[in-house]
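Methods: holo model generation. Sequences were used as deposited, without trimming of termini or removal of tags, and paired with ligand SMILES retrieved from the corresponding compound records. Each pair was processed once, and we did not select among multiple samples. The sequence and nicotinamide-adenine-dinucleotide SMILES for this entry were:
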Amino acid sequence: MSKICVMGLGYIGLPTASVLATNGFKVLGVDVGATVVDTVNSGNIHIEEPGLHTVVQAAINSGNLRASLTPEKADVFFVAVPTPIHEDKTVNMDCVTEATEAIVPFLEPGNLVILESTSPPGTCRDLLKPILEQSGLVVGKDIFLAHCPERVLPGKILKELIENDRVVGGYSRECAERAKAIYKSFIEGEVFITDVTTAEMVKVIENTFRDVNIALANETAILCEALGISFHEVAKLANRHPRVNLHMAGPGVGGHCISVDPWFLIERFPDKTLLIRDARDRNDNMPEHVANQVAALVADIQDPKITLLGLAFKGNVDDARESPSLKVITLLRERGFRVAVHDPHVKRSPIELTSLEESFGNSDCAVFLTDHSDYKYLNPAEICKLMKRAVVYDTRNILDHNLWRREGFDVKVLGTGAEPPA
Ligand SMILES: NC(=O)c1ccc[n+]([C@@H]2O[C@H](COP(=O)([O-])OP(=O)(O)OC[C@H]3O[C@@H](n4cnc5c(N)ncnc54)[C@H](O)[C@@H]3O)[C@@H](O)[C@H]2O)c1
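and the model returned the structure below.
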């Protein structure tokens, strides 16, 4: 059975490494974080993902998974490290470069390198190939290179890792066939083969598709507010058309993928990405729209306290990277508002979080920013007792608005310009 080295033990690398290990591969997981390595070696996890702890424990107990700060010789190398953007929105490929350079001393003829990180089209040919060939081995002849982008949904990673169809792009046909064989040994979905740049573009355009369509939903929501009607009613009815799928509107787009990957195309083709650029701007402006609405809700209050519910970029995950909540918090603080933030999932928070009771205590306005399931089950009668003013702003359409109104709340919903008909 092949020995596999997985570079990066985050949301993608750790589930992949442990699923490979529980499928019989000998796996070495490599991470630059010493705490990550120690945590994994002790059978524990440093991120929140349903089912992951059990699989990591099983993988460690089987003896098939080990974690280390440095790579070793292997048959297959997976690279699953971050591909973020800089402040100026240009792509930061430092982690991919460093992880690839780290495996060069261990490469041997016949090895296969698979880049899983979402990367700008051209990365394997223009960045990875020259680095790998520093080993003296020729890509496509002595060693094999493929890109297999990950498509999993946080919160369902383990299920989707096994069930999703995958696209494998090879530097050559043989590279793709070798990578396909690895995936077919542990996934149930179909594996489609293509060339390496096409595979890179497939992943980036999947996330760009979602960003553009969310932007359309957000713009529709703003138009509905101006029209004094409900976006959610419009979306529900429009989506009864067999070929329409209006996405959900919200306070913006966050996370490590959808809000980041379109920039890979904008940076490379600034003159050709007019629609993609506008969509990014529309989504990036949503936190400001939310902050303006909140400011209007507390306009007549002296030194108001605002409760913000949800720091994670989406419901039921612990990931706050690029979260629109962070931008809303910054904008409200810049305007001098007192802000208390609660999140039941986020552990590594860049800002101070408070308990639910403290967050609601003496508050003038509660704003639901993330669709965590926990929030749907809050009891408005109890919340009403904690708050100074019974005002809520639901940016994710997660509350039972009639129930909250019955308990005396003034309820504002993102995308709704007037009281919806009773
Ligand atoms: N998180 C998702 O849901 C998701 C979904 C699809 C694709 N992706 C893509 O997968 C890639 C990885 O994302 P993630 O969410 O797993 O990131 P992550 O931040 O959760 O994990 C990455 C890990 O890599 C480690 N690392 C950084 N540099 C390293 C190096 N040189 N050598 C070894 N380890 C290194 C970090 O310490 C970290 O633990 C990104 O390109 C992302 O766009 C992520």
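The longest strand covers residues 3-7.
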